[in-house]
Design brief:
Two copies of one chain form a homodimer. With about 240 residues, chain A is α+β, with helices and mostly antiparallel strands. Chain A is about 30% helix and about 35% strand. Chain A has two domains: about 10-75, Winged helix-like DNA-binding domain superfamily/Winged helix DNA-binding domain (Arc Repressor Mutant, subunit A, Orthogonal Bundle), CATH 1.10.10.10; about 80-235, Chorismate lyase (3-Layer(aba) Sandwich), CATH 3.40.1410. The first copy, chain A, has helices at about 10-25, 35-45, 50-60, 85-95, 110-115, 150, 165-170, 190-195, and strands spanning about 35, 65, 70-75, 100-110, 125-135, 140-150, 175-190, 205-215, 220-230, 235-240. The structure holds a DNA duplex (19 and 19 nucleotides).
Chain lengths: ~240, ~240
DNA sequence: AAGTGGTCTAGACCACGGC
DNA sequence: CCGTGGTCTAGACCACTTC
């Protein structure tokens, strides 16, 4: 019997997408039992090992949970901790409207630290984009993004302020954002930031320095953010 | 032929630990090629599928990298982002000596918030353990741990102060720590904390509230920590 | 006892990359 | 061409859980 099948997809992937479809369509709910290896093998006309592969791989993805002697079950929808999200995405995932105001947007060539974080030569031209974020009518964060001007100066003509920067990068520049390394510490509001955020001077702020990389490992954007600690708090999950 | 083998371990795990050993011993370095599936199968007298399983599983762990048509190679040592580590482990991973002083250790029954974080009834007895952390002779963090007194009051007789709390929990109580959810924000040092940490009052501090869970999902410990922002900064990685 | 997942065999062909 | 990893078969026995 030939290994190749009608649509060119490996058999174990066909089985996976069949199961995924039933979950997405609502026919299978978290906790429901999935057909056993042996049943899947019969249904899809494959060997046990192939059906196993399909289920084992779905388990790695966290879609199902397998219990020896019991069966395979649809896993509870996973909470996305530590997920890289844009401000817009974070807000909408909490059903809040995202407000944003561009305070500054220009190409500069003396932003040495930002250039270094982007792995560019110290005097490279970088696009600096400063935005005030607010929610519920209150300002709560000041975020400054830096991007390589050589690659992204066109952003100055893009509808920043209305559209998500992540979205523009992914759609217009075909960049797949992959991961971000963040450094977090606490600092006191200096006079300028205090005024912009409408808080007293020397108020404690969360400072987050973030380098965002593409899936290929290229540094795309450096973001320096100051967050009002009374309105923002970071949640992460660590694993042992 | 019987499936069972001399030491009771599955064959694919024996193959894995053989490879791991060669890496740990320095016989195999990042980038070096690992024996191919077929070679491993011959060497360990197993079928191809079993050798495959061993390598595929090592790849999931990030120990090796597999490239079709090329071979299997030792992966670059992974940086452990977002890893749950004890203070002692963190310090030793940076080759610093961990210093720690117990300021308070008692069972209390009016720590409502801590009890709630541990999913215990509000008035449960909890063990409160307050420790001053220092490094390089300087105090840099105040950490307060809360544990269920019903289960862990014996800790009062354990050599806290000398030994890692994580270690005691894992060895003496047979608890497998699994993950932790952390809430991070910034706050200003109150008079007591300022004095303990030898910093001016109202200095910005990083505040981390951490609930540590066992691998089974049971809340084991609630830790409230205040970190001198000039000495400590949190690094995490987020994924999209 | 019956059913489940976990491990394993001894082969096979395919797709890819380097020579 | 040859060696690599990727997919697959048609069985087998083991360990575990429920009945």
């Amino acid at each position: 019997m030939p290994v190749k099948n009608r649509n060119g997809l490996p058999a174990y992937q066909r089985i996976q997408s069949a199961i995924r479809k039933r979950i997405d369509a609502g026919h299978l709910h978290p906790g429901d039992s999935v057909a056993s290896e042996r049943d899947l093998a019969k249904i899809h006309q494959v060997s046990l090992m192939t059906a196993r592969h399909a289920l084992a791989s779905l388990e790695r993805e966290g879609i199902v949970e397998r219990r020896r002697g019991i069966g395979t079950f649809v896993a509870a929808p996973k909470i996305h901790f530590n997920e890289l999200m844009s401000y817009t995405e974070q807000m909408s995932s909490r059903s809040l409207t995202a407000g944003s105001k561009v305070l500054f947007a220009k190409v500069l060539d003396n932003e040495n630290e930002a250039a270094a974080r982007l792995s560019l030569p110290p005097t490279s031209s970088v696009l600096k984009l400063e935005r005030l974020r607010h929610a519920a009518g209150e300002p709560f964060a000041l975020e400054t993004c830096y991007l390589s001007a050589a690659e992204f100066s066109g952003l100055l003509d893009a509808p920043i302020g209305r559209e998500s920067l992540f979205g523009i990068l992914e759609r217009n520049y075909k960049i797949e954002l992959g991961y971000a390394d963040e450094e977090i510490d606490a600092t006191a509001a200096d006079p300028r930031i205090a005024e912009i955020l409408s808080i007293p001077r020397r108020e404690p702020l969360l400072r987050i320095r973030q380098v965002i990389y593409s899936t290929k490992g290229l540094a795309i954007m450096y973001v320096l953010g100051f967050y009002r600690s009374d309105r923002h708090n970071l949640v992460i999950r660590r694993f042992r």
